[in-house]
Write a structure and sequence with these properties.
Layout lengths: L8 E9 L9 E6 L2 E8 L4 H16 L5 H20 L8 E2 L1 E9 L2 E9 L3 E6 L2 E4 L6 H7 L5 H6 L17 E8 L5 E5 L1 H4 L4 H10 L3 H14 L6 E10 L13 E4 L6 H4 L6 H13 L3
Antiparallel strand pairs: 1-11, 2-3, 3-4, 3-5, 5-6, 6-9, 7-8, 7-10, 9-12, 10-11
Helix pairs in contact: 1-2, 6-7
The chain binds manganese (II) ion.
């Protein structure tokens, strides 16, 4: 029997558009070696663009330990970078960004996929004929759905659905949600900003994912569909295909979420210069920053 080790092989496509309403595209995305990172920035002036670009570059530049925790560590370092930059420039103060990432990592001697998420950009898996959301949203409406105070349908139309409960750049201590899952040949992963799923429902997203075998074409088609459906926000999409993997052992399943907090809190460095106005000004800035107009 052949015991030849078959490596996991991934291919991908990505696309992004400013949409029909926003003046600038504050989403950003980037790829490394079997690493895919997407961020949706927020904050007035040029803050949102800077935050998402800094966060993506931060993860790409510091993912040097190919494990699930290594991915969380890279997100933590990216948070330090965004937070530090916001603290050092009054024009950027209060900026923040979501971030989600997918990477091939090692776990117990095997190649598996790891996902990391902070905020309300999403990672989905399409496989076995079904679309499954892997990541959990860190947003006010997602909390209300989880507590039973809102239905999924109400959340979709809620006027405050843009308010985040977690983001990079806001505090020096960051909790990063992480998951691990096996790579199965034929599976397709989708990373996207909220500009996609606020315009297209799950059935439409699943349909677009299955209509186009080529991941580049699939990504471009999905972004165009979201813009055609209204384009109220920037929209960014990664489509990542598992082209080859060792033979699957049993059905696909995702691990339970594991939350990594790798740095201590120490927001005081950013706050020291504010003096007596500190608390009211900070809460105002935080409110403005989190309300992505
Ligand atoms: Mn957005």
């Amino acid at each position: 029997m052949s015991r030849r080790h078959q490596r996991v092989r991934l291919s991908h496509g990505a696309a992004s558009a400013v949409g029909r309403v926003r003046a600038t595209n504050q989403d950003d995305y980037g790829t490394g070696d079997d690493l895919f990172v997407l961020a949706d920035g927020m904050g007035g002036h040029r803050g949102g663009e800077v935050a998402s670009a800094e966060a993506v570059a931060g993860v790409l530049g510091s993912f040097d330990e190919r494990t699930r925790v290594g991915l969380a560590r890279a997100v933590d370092r990216a948070n330090q970078a965004v937070f530090g930059r916001a603290a050092g420039d009054v024009d950027l103060f209060g900026m923040g960004t979501t971030l989600c990432a997918l990477a091939l990592v090692r776990s117990d001697g095997r190649d598996v996929l790891a996902v990391a998420n902070v905020g309300d950009s999403r990672v989905y898996r399409y496989g076995d004929g079904r679309l499954t959301q892997v990541s959990d949203d860190h947003s006010l409406v997602a909390d209300l759905v989880r507590s039973g105070d809102l239905t999924e349908e109400e959340a979709l139309r809620h006027p405050q659905r843009n308010i985040l409960t977690r983001a990079l750049g806001i505090e020096s201590a960051l909790s990063v949600d992480t998951w691990e899952m096996p790579a199965h040949t034929g599976d397709r992963y989708l990373l996207c900003s909220d500009g996609l799923f606020n315009e297209l429902d799950d059935d439409r997203i699943a349909g677009l994912l299955t209509d186009n075998d080529n991941p580049k074409l699939a990504a471009a088609t999905m972004v165009r569909a979201a813009v055609d459906a209204g384009g109220h926000d920037n929209v960014t999409v990664f489509v990542v295909d598992v082209d080859a993997a060792p033979s699957a052992q049993g059905p696909w399943q995702c691990s339970d979420v594991r939350v990594e907090q790798l740095s201590e809190g120490g927001a005081r460095t950013a706050r020291r210069w504010l003096g007596p106005l500190e608390q009211p000004l900070l809460s105002l800035l935080a409110r403005l920053a989190r309300r992505r107009q």
